[in-house]
Amino acid sequence: xxxxxxxxxxxxxxxxxxxxxxxxxxxxxxxxxxxxxxxxxxxxxxxxxxxxxxxxxxxxxxxxxxxxxxxxxxxxxxxxxxxxxxxxxxxxxxxxxxxxxxxxxxxxxxxxxxxxxxxxxxxxxxxxxxxxxxxxxxxxxxxxxxxxxxxxxxxxxxxxxxxxxxxxxxxxxxxxxxxxxxxxxxxxxxxxxxxxxxxxxxxxxxxxxxxxxxx
Length: 215
Fold this sequence. Notes:
Layout: H1 2-23, H2 34-48, E1 63-74, H3 78-86, E2 98-109, E3 112-125, E4 128-141, E5 146-153, E6 157-169, E7 172-184, H4 188-212
Antiparallel strand pairs: 1-7, 2-3, 3-4, 4-5, 5-6, 6-7
């Protein structure tokens, strides 16, 4: 029964994915200007309040929340790992789908650095390339060696990410990602499975790039 539910969830997500992808630009990058993307980011922020991770989805809302935690050990000192890992632009090419990051606003306040951005992903689907956009805000706590990122992407998937860096001594660093996913009941399993797999792949790629000296 659970296998059937996952299959139906995947089919529903695929349908929503196609509707989203082909209702906009279905080419190698979005046709929108950076100014238009910034306006879309603000509208998304105002409408969905994806930064508010405190209350769980309300009963009857049709939404579910699931959490996951993944960690990786990197053979490099935290003073080098933290700035390299927390720089979202360094994730380009590390994630197989992430092609571009458009920064809308970058400022510091009360010891934290805030970055509003949109990530542009190019995803192969049935012989073509479709473009998806993920709107996000990152908050980097320089003194606390941690950062948080909240994202929203179609079809209404919200993620809350808290990434913590621990100095293990001996020039080694542990990076732990605490992930929370909010999505439609029918899509939550698919969103979690694919979200976790994506973050694990990015973790592994960043580890290799940092340890090799590429970053």
